[in-house]
């Protein structure tokens, strides 16, 4: 299905604009790409926390959080006490990738796992 520019304008109230990115915008995009490429596909929760400020500065928090999924799964399954007592869990327990592997209902009011 081909959609014309006029149809897009109607659907999204979009307007065609000629724009040239600034030097700062280009540097930002290049740095963001560099970060994504240089870091491994699988991150430990410790590595994620170490680079968290950098990730948020470049809008990479959610992308990099998914790269911690293997570590989250391992810790939630085999070392749940260590996991729920970690800074990572305290900060990101509401994130979907954490909830996917760890059911908060397993933790009682004393912080023990049922």
Alpha-beta content class: mainly alpha
The N- to C-terminal Cα distance equals 54 Å
Radius of gyration: 20 Å
Kindly estimate the percentage of residues that lie in beta strands according to DSSP.
under 5%
The SSE string, one letter per element, is HHHHHHHH
What is the number of strand segments? 0
- Assign an overall shape: elongated
**Low-confidence parts, pLDDT < 50 over ≥5 residues?**
none
Q: Portion of residues in helices?
A: 55-70%
What is the number of helical segments per DSSP (H or I, 4+ residues)? 8
Average predicted confidence as pLDDT = 86
Please describe the biggest sheet, giving its number of strands, its sense, and whether it closes into a barrel: none
What is this structure's SSE topology?
Blueprint: H1 5-12, H2 23-38, H3 45-57, H4 61-66, H5 69-78, H6 80-84, H7 87-92, H8 96-101
Can you characterise this structure?
By secondary structure, the chain is mainly alpha-helical. Helix content is 61%, strand content 0%. It is built from 8 helices and no strands. The longest helix has 16 residues. It starts with a helix and ends in a 13-residue tail after the last helix. The model has no long low-confidence stretch (mean pLDDT 86).
């Amino acid at each position: 299905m081909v959609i014309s520019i006029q149809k897009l304008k109607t659907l999204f109230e979009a307007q065609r604009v000629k724009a040239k990115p600034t030097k700062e915008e280009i540097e930002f995009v290049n740095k963001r790409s560099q970060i994504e490429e240089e870091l491994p596909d699988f991150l430990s929760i410790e590595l994620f926390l170490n680079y968290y400020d950098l990730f948020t500065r470049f809008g990479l928090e959610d992308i990099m959080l998914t790269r911690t999924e293997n570590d989250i799964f391992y810790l939630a399954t085999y070392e749940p006490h260590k996991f729920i007592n970690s800074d990572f869990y305290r900060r990101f327990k509401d994130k979907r990738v954490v909830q996917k592997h760890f059911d908060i209902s397993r933790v009682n009011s004393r912080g023990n796992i049922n």
